[in-house]
């Protein structure tokens, strides 16, 4: 049951927070199924086959209009590997864009596992030209209830700026259906050698094949945020709060619902995301 719950938590990251609408466009979150909490568990399962379809909307202040997102995700398990992919069609800041991402979560041994991910955009200013992320995970304690991670990332943007990041996190899985997580992300952006730090805390409650409810709060600095092809907000603070609910209708099919609020010095953003998932 413990491993099944962890696998379900990994799936939850695909939708935990409409904050995802920002995460694939900018650099403050990992590219693979960004959400709450991050994938902290060994989730390789050679029998895993799943698809998820979600749609989201975001309302921005200060005349920046509304965003729309439609995303299809899939997972395919092999011995020692869990392959995942997504394709997202976005409408943001008045322009359409397409993002494609793939990742591999792989087993090293009973205590160690890792993940690598690659994401590419279609050249739209708010998406990356490409981004690469790699993370190493370690389970601790006799029951492996404490999981830590260290990850590195590189982001190349159409406007010419780049980001190099280091992410650290830890999560504790209680015997009861609670999971607590916290972490930070150190980022260096160029040009300008802009150095920023973000932190997050997250909590998850629930059971696999029934309901999973998560909440996350992120705060700190960001390096670059493109609002137009030639306009960026640089070296600023932001905050984001998101909640997500994953509900199983039966053993294979379920519904997803999430909401978020994000603020920075230029605008605020509020959104909802809904979806459906199915395991084959």
3D architecture notes:
The structure is a single chain. With 280 residues, the chain is mainly beta. It has a single domain, classed as Porin (Beta Barrel). The chain has helices at 2-12, 20-23, and strands at 49-60, 66-78, 81-92, 95-107, 112-121, 130-140, 146-156, 162-173, 178-190, 194-207, 211-228, 231-248, 253-263, 268-279. The protein is globular and about 50 Å long. The two termini are 19 Å apart. Mean pLDDT is 86; it is low at 1-44.
Strand order of the largest sheet: 1-2-3-4-5-6-7-8-9-10-11-12-13-14
Q: What's the helical proportion of residues?
A: under 10%
Name the CATH superfamily classification: monomeric porin ompg
Helix/sheet category: mainly beta
CATH secondary-structure class? Mainly Beta
Number of helices: 2
What are the key terms here?
single chain, 280 residues, mainly beta, Porin, 14-stranded antiparallel barrel, 2 helices, globular, disordered N terminus
Helices and strands in order, then pairings?
Elements: H1 2-12, H2 20-23, E1 49-60, E2 66-78, E3 81-92, E4 95-107, E5 112-121, E6 130-140, E7 146-156, E8 162-173, E9 178-190, E10 194-207, E11 211-228, E12 231-248, E13 253-263, E14 268-279
Antiparallel strand pairs: 1-2, 1-14, 2-3, 3-4, 4-5, 5-6, 6-7, 7-8, 8-9, 9-10, 10-11, 11-12, 12-13, 13-14
